[in-house]
Design goal:
This protein is an alpha/beta fold. 39% of the residues lie in helices and 12% in strands. The protein is built from twelve helices and ten strands.
């Protein structure tokens, strides 16, 4: 495993982090990636620790707290050796949110309890409208107060889009940002977000690097997902674009290259120095082994990235929900 710094003065974190949405499962009616097995989920976290993963990203929304509970149990013996990030503000799959100071303060105490810790390394606002953050200074003021009190060590924003991420960094002074980025969604390059974050030493956490699993090459356009799998919310046209996309990009690889589709997708994300860590969702120890090996395989060649950028510009990968 290789490591990078999470922003100017941030901690060292593993290039491949552990995205913990999936292990929250469908607890209390939550949408994720279908049914999970808690024993296997904990084994996945423990395997991640064994292979050098030090960054774990979750949210109180994932499994409505269940993801945090599993991480709290699995990380109890190594808490001082890992960086734990969680989020606040999302209430339900319908998009309801609450960023009031009262809700943030109640939620941070609940997250601390579930995570079995007395501090959170990175506490992130979960997809907040940036216009709300600009209009209501109390939100970020509350987050900063929690930092001064020692309940959290850093404040971050998980941006709704790379465009809103630009506003969060440029206008609101956010020092750690989580944003979508993958082979099929390169807006963070196109709109200058990566360049801005690198210039001002903002930590960047890349989410959806495997595009909800479609970049693993394991799903067809007609895949039947479980009823409680969030991917059912995307229309068939969108799923068809995602399912067939990997084959377009495989032509960019140099002859003789040996890696899995997932490793290729992760290596692309790691090819940009603005990126601090990439957080694929991992449900099993096998997922962990495959994904973390992308770090040691290293960044793609400049020529490969150029080809990927050209393919991306020549195609449209978004059809809407």
């Amino acid at each position: 495993m290789r490591y990078r710094t999470l922003g100017a003065n941030g901690p060292s974190v593993s290039e491949i982090g552990f995205g913990a949405w999936g292990i929250g499962g469908n607890t209390n009616g939550a949408l994720a990636y279908g049914a999970t097995n808690d024993t296997i989920s904990v084994q996945a976290v423990q395997r991640a620790i064994d292979v050098g993963v030090t960054f774990f990203d979750t949210a109180d929304f994932y499994g409505f707290g269940h993801s945090e509970e599993l991480l709290g149990a699995a990380l109890a013996g190594v808490r001082n050796k890992v960086v734990v990030a969680t989020k606040v503000g999302m209430l339900d799959a319908g998009g309801a949110q609450d960023f009031s100071a009262h809700h943030i303060r109640v939620s941070v105490e609940q997250s601390l309890r579930r995570l079995r810790t007395d501090y959170i390394d990175l506490y992130q606002l979960h997809s907040p409208p940036v216009c709300l953050l600009k209009e209501n200074a109390d939100i970020l003021a509350c987050m900063e107060a929690l930092r001064r009190e020692g309940k959290i060590r850093a404040v971050g924003v998980s941006a709704r889009s790379p465009e809103e991420g630009m506003v969060a960094v440029r206008d609101l002074g956010i020092r750690c940002l989580q944003a979508n980025f993958n082979l099929l969604d390169q807006r963070a390059i196109d709109n200058g977000l990566f360049a801005l974050c690198q210039a001002v030493d903002v930590g960047v956490i890349v989410r959806t690097p495997l595009c909800f699993g479609f970049l693993t090459g394991q799903y067809s356009a007609t895949e039947k997902f479980a009823v409680n799998d969030h991917r059912n919310r995307w229309n068939p046209a969108q799923r068809e674009k995602w399912a067939g996309a990997y084959h377009l990009f495989s032509s960019a690889l140099r002859a003789g290259t040996s890696h899995t589709p997932a490793q290729f997708a992760l290596r692309f994300c790691l090819s940009f120095p603005a990126v601090s860590t990439v957080i694929p969702g991992m449900l099993t120890p096998e997922h962990v082994d495959e994904n973390t090996q992308a770090s040691m395989l290293g960044a793609l060649a400049e020529s490969e990235c150029s080809s990927i950028r050209r393919i991306y510009r020549d195609n449209d990968f978004f059809a809407g929900r």
